[in-house]
Every structure is written in C-alpha cells, then in structure tokens.
Amino acid sequence: MSLIIKVENLSKKYVIGHKAKERYKTLRDTLAASFKNFFVGKRKVNNPEFEDFWALKDIDYEINEGDRVGIIGRNGAGKSTLLKILSRITEPTTGKITFKGRVASLLEVGTGFHPELTGRENIFLNGAILGMPKNDIQKKFDEIVEFSEVEKFLDTPVKRYSSGMYVRLAFAVAAHMEPEILIVDEVLAVGDAAFQKKCLGKMKGVSESGRTVLFVSHNMGAIEQLCNRGILLDKGLMVLSSDTNAVLSKYREFINRSQVTETSGIGNESTRRGTGELRITSFQLLTKDNEPANEFDLGSTIRFKIGYKAIEELKGLAVAIFFKSNSTNEMISSLRHEVISMTLAPGNTGEVIIEFDGQTLRPGEYPLYIHISEKSYYSNKFDLLDGYVAPLVIRRTGNNFYNNYVMTGNYGYFSMNSSVISVE
Amino acid sequence: MINDEYCLVVEAGKTEKNYWKDLWKYRELFYFLAWRDILVRYKQTIVGIAWSVLRPLLTMLVFTIVFGKLAKLPSNGVPYAIFVYSAMMPWQFFSNALSEGSSSLIGNANLISKVYFPRIIIPASTVIVALVDFLISFILFLLILLWYNYAPALSIIAIPFFLLLSFFTSMGFSLWLCALNVEYRDFRYIVPFIVQFGLYISPVGFGSEIVPEKWRLLYSLNPMVGVIDGFRWSISGNSCPLNPLNFFVSIAVTFIILISGIWYFRKTEKTFADFI
User: Which of A87, A340, B72, B139 could in theory staple to A105 by disulfide, Cβ–Cβ 3.0 to 4.6 A?
Assistant: First the structure.
C-alpha cells in the first residue's frame, strides 16, 4: 500500500464575531475602527467582540491508496472544514498536505448549474467545474445522460426541471468523474429512494475500483457499508483513527456521554445562539422509563429532559423542540410548551421533561434544535442549541441496509393517519 | 495508478509554485464560464443584444449634441460623432468589465465555496463577456463610418493593440475591486461611482487636447486617457496625434495597476471561501 495523502500538523483558525450584525466586514467599519484604535490605542486582541476559533487543530493523518475513509463527528466537529481544506477551497492556517494523485471533490451536487442553460449545456459546464477535461465529458456524455434518466429533456433549460430531475442530472455528472482521490460530502441524501439506491451502487463501484475515497456523512449505515477506515473528529481534534467499526462504536459511545453544559458550544454561531438572559444547562433524550438513550425503536415514546438557568429576571419560560431534516436541514416539525408562567429570579435553575409519543415518526435521523425563551411569543430573550446535541435516531426494526439508508420506507418523515372512505 | 505528475503540496502561508501551470490546466473552465456568461446574457433576450447596440449609440448622440453642437468643443476636423464613438468603445468596454468584474466573485459565491479552481478565472471570464459587447459596438462603428463616409486612417490596424491595453486596464481594476469586494462588502457602492466619475475625467465626450498642456502629463495618470487617445489616433490618424511621453505614462500606470492587482488577488484568493 502506498501513501496517497499525507496531512501534517493541520490547523484552521477562524476569527469570529459575537454580534450577529457583524455578518460582513465593511470598509467603513474597518476604517472607523482603525481610526479609533489609532487615537485610543485599543488593541484588537482585547476586543471581546472577536474571538479566535480553531475549527481544526493539529491533525496528522495518512491515507493509503485505495482506502475508503469515513469522517464522522458531531455538527461543528470540523468535518466540513477538513474537507474544504483537502479540496483546496480554503487555506489551512498551519500545516502541510501532500497529495499524490488528482483530487476531485463533491461537496454539493449541481455546483454551478445555471437555471437558464439546458441540461446538455449544464453537463458540460458542471463537468468543467468539477475538473473533467472536455474530451472525457464528451466520451461519457451518453453514459451520463442514461444514468440521469433525463434524455427527453436534454434541450430544456434546467429551470423547468423537477427537483428530482435536477438532482439526478447533477449526480450523474459527478458520478462519472474519474480522479484518483474522491472527496464526497453527504451528497447521497438526495433524490428518491430508487435513485439513492443507484447512487449508492455507483459509489460502491467507485470504491471497489481501487480509488481512494473520503466520505463525510452522518449516516452510520452508509459509512459502515462504504468505508474501511474511519476518523472521528470532535471540536477540531482528531479523537480516533482506526477501522470503521472501532470508530463507529467510539462515536456512539461519545455522543451518548457528551453532555450539554451552560457554556458548551458558546462562540460557535452555527450551533449555539442566545441573548444571554437565560441558558440551557443540560439536555438528554430519555426512554419512557427515564433511561438515557439516543436511538429509539420505531414507535417508541421519547422524552426530552432540558435543564435551564435564569441569568436575569425572566417572565416565565417556554421550551420548544424542532425536528430537522437530516438531508436538507430544514425544520420539519416542532413542539412548544409554555412551562412556567411565574417570574423567575436570577440564578433560578430547574429541569423540564417533555414527552413525545413518537408514534408518527418514521425511521431516520433527526437533528434537534432546542430553544428556550421567556413565555411570551414576542420576547426576544432566548437560548438555543442548533444541531449541537446528537441527532435523534429512530431505528427501523430489522437490519436491511437499504431500508435503513433510505430515510423512510414510505416517503416523508411522518406517517399520516388515513383511510379509504369509498371506492367506486 | 499513482502518478507523480500529479504530486501536489499545499502548505499554509505559501503561494503555490505551480500557480500559472494550474491556471493553464483550468483553461477549459475559463472557456466554459465565459461561454456560460455570454449564453445567459444573450439567451432569450433580444434586449440583451439591443442594449449593447443602443447604449453606445444613445450616449454618442447625447455627447455629440452636448459637447459638439452646444459647447462647440474641437474635434480636429473629425465628425464629432465618430470622434466620440471612437472613445466610447474602449470606455464602454472598461466600464462594463469593471461593473461585471467587480461583483463577479460575489455572484459566483456558490462556486467558490464548493470547488477549487484558480479564482482569477472568474473575473477574467467576465471581462471576456464585455469583449463580446465591444465587438458588437465595433461592428456598429463600421456602419457609422459608412454613414459618415469617413475613411479611417491606416493606423486602424493598431486597434487590437489598444484593445489589449484596455483589457489590461479593465483586468487590473477588476482584480483589485472584486478581491476587495469579497472582504469589504461596501465596495460595491464605490464601483458605480468610479464608473460615473471616470466618464467625466476621461476624454470620452471631449478630446484630451482641451486639457491645458502643463496638466497633460498629470492627466495621463488616468490610464484610460492613454487607451482612449490610442483609439482616437488609430482611427483618425494624424488628426488626433499621440503624445509618446503621455502615452507611456498611461501604459506604465496600467501595468502598475495590473501587476499589483494580480499580487493582491493572489494574496487574498485562498481565503475567499472563508469570507464569501
């Protein structure tokens, strides 16, 4: 086995602002700040509004030719940053990477698709963006079209495509790249069930042909099937690198014991945002018997235990939990309860348990968005965890891989109570 | 299967040695992006083409009336419309390239945050789109020559050279502005100002001779002065002579802006994905 990627001492630092309005830097603000600094002599280092955030810290890793490496970790662990650096989209702050092969990365299907252009034009454009030489695209054109099942609409602008057709065409182009190293970010979670099966088959084919694959996914089933090696990341550090099973079991153990505290995740805008008057101090998923758990069998009762602390005086308390889609990250359902109506004094703490009967939820993984606030809908005092805790996992009974992979046997996230009233 | 030809080292804080080689490798993407922008611009919009014909024509009309007929500025015996139009062509090219180029990176944010390629391809390909507009307005120019029955000087064969010069000028400014635009979002407000202001301080509606002789050298610090004078000279020959010293100053400024633009762009391009 020969070495194909060598990562040495890799770190990536971001400077993050704590104020939401500092979304973009403007020249005006920068000039104003430097004038102020010049006259007042204030140093940026002491500025509490900005803080260094290490998305990755001292990663050392070697990948051999033909390895299929699964990269796992919770949201905010640094997986995407690692992929971005390996794909050369952004530069590391320290460290060195040596590649011994052509790298192609697929962080999103359909990157660069233009709605006004036809399917045919987009195949060439997207291929060029992914780094395929024009000759290769021409050679594989028929294969791509056949794989995508959109031959009838090749000369239609893609803005008239259904979302399914769009995704199929986009994946078809990507699936026909032939680099020595392929970097993939959870792109399989798209399209309908039959097409997902096809994509997964294609991915297996790619990895069996001896190419090196790096694969990020939240889907443990897919990692188990595709990868022979695993890397577990947490808070930018590499916790474990070993064979897939060892890493997966470590990950499960890890997410089960990982605790939310009053301060966890603060400073990472994407996973924790709050206004500071109140805090979530703990979060746990429980079974009906109050046993801690992360994975639940289909149809079982789920309890959410949330700890809170009032930092300032609060007018009551409301707790909301939103379920998100694992593939699109949109909110798919929510529950909200006004749990306390009297005034809370600063320093008051407590715990709330909410039960959800779970009958309608279909198998899959549901990232959770946990929100506590003052009782009133109109209050702007809140604290929230966005995908910080491990996702809620609903297991399908039986262990058919494809059924587990495809989020639902039926379509959608929730089952619907329906019955036939009449047939003529 | 491992091919040493593809050996690549990415190291923090170091510029890559094979940057220009990489750019050559991605030339197909450059063609495709330019082709996409042209296609999208002219697709299903007759207005797209009409606009690139109407805009220079109307501006020429207004300038001819205001500067030629009302202010009665000199045009060295060249019909005022032709005098204005020969300056209009490089100016429109520059202003189109600048407005499109400076927002090109932001407009392609999804590409930049999802795939690697030498980022310089993006502003370069938008400047190419402005070139297509230039070609359309050049064809229109030939018709205007016929209309006025005006025979251009032999020096018209030098037009490609001056076009290249205006390409370098546009590219230099675009590189600076699009890179700054990624980090400082308020730069997009500056661009329309530069374009508008530039129209008045460049010799588009008038000839650069009306600037007093002692200020001419200073005036040539505006790189578009050299480009526009060059265009006028190549079309009207000795009626619009080119002062070699002033012209050289404009060329020097163009290259300073271009080279520093490339330098700044390369310095910042690796972190575009973090800001965009």
Answer: A87
